[in-house]
Design a protein that fits this description.
The chain is of the alpha/beta class and about 230 residues long. The chain is built from six helices and twelve strands. α3 packs across α5.
Length: about 230
């Protein structure tokens, strides 16, 4: 299927969420085709629809001093952290037209990273069930998954730790799970990983798993449809 690829670079979470909502609305009106948004966020803590404020361990004064905001989100899941060095992807897909169930779509997202990590880095990752969403290496999570589907159109998506500052995860109880910890690709490989190279791998495996054919677009091209 043909898809747009919109790489926003480093963004503030709230502004990127506005862009997501805008593209989702355009997709519902069939003014845009399916679109994958890629970004890195400025440091932010987000609370999903099952979010518990108690899982934000740092006080407001500490977060303010670090320039980290707490932002509500209608994605699935609890609390998570986004920051530079983490590839965040927001696929805006009409599941009905793509002939995908929400479960198939979610399973494909998980499989994307399982295959990528195995084939490119020799890392054996796996998926789990219920509260343990995401992609795991043992009890360490390398990719968080949190989606939202309305009128069969997806929002939100994945956060893949490549060279993320893992100390920032100590500010929260990630996903509300005290017995699990996040991990990055650089920690697992013990070497520096280019975020641009890692992004190209994500795009390539997205194309493989979903049968997508990407065409790059800019934000100004999106705004022409608004």
């Amino acid at each position: 299927m043909k898809m747009n690829l919109l790489d926003l670079g480093l963004t503030e979470y709230g502004k990127c969420l506005e862009t997501q909502n805008k593209i989702r609305e355009l997709r519902e009106k069939e003014l845009l085709i399916d679109t994958l948004i890629l970004t890195e966020h400025q440091p932010v803590i987000t609370l999903g629809c099952r979010g518990n404020d108690e899982n934000v361990l740092a006080g407001k004064d500490i977060l303010d001093s670090m320039g980290i905001n707490v932002h509500p989100s209608n994605r699935g899941g609890d609390v998570t952290y986004h920051g530079p060095g983490q590839i965040v992807g927001y696929p805006i897909i009409n599941l009905k037209k793509a002939n995908l169930s929400a479960k198939d779509y979610l399973d494909n997202l998980l499989e994307l990273f399982i295959q990528l990590l195995k084939n490119e880095y020799g890392i054996n990752a796996h998926k789990e069930h219920k509260e343990y969403t995401g992609v795991w290496i043992g009890k360490e999570k390398i990719t968080a998954i949190g989606i939202h589907v309305k009128h069969m159109i997806t929002m939100h998506g994945f956060a893949y730790n490549v060279s993320t500052n893992m100390d920032h995860f100590k500010l929260i109880n990630p996903c509300g799970l005290s017995d699990r910890t996040p991990v990055s690709l650089e920690m697992l490989t013990g070497r520096k990983i280019s975020i641009e190279d890692a992004k190209k791998q994500v795009v390539a495996y997205f194309e493989k798993i979903y049968g997508a054919e990407f065409e790059e677009i800019t934000l100004s091209e999106v705004e022409k449809h608004v």
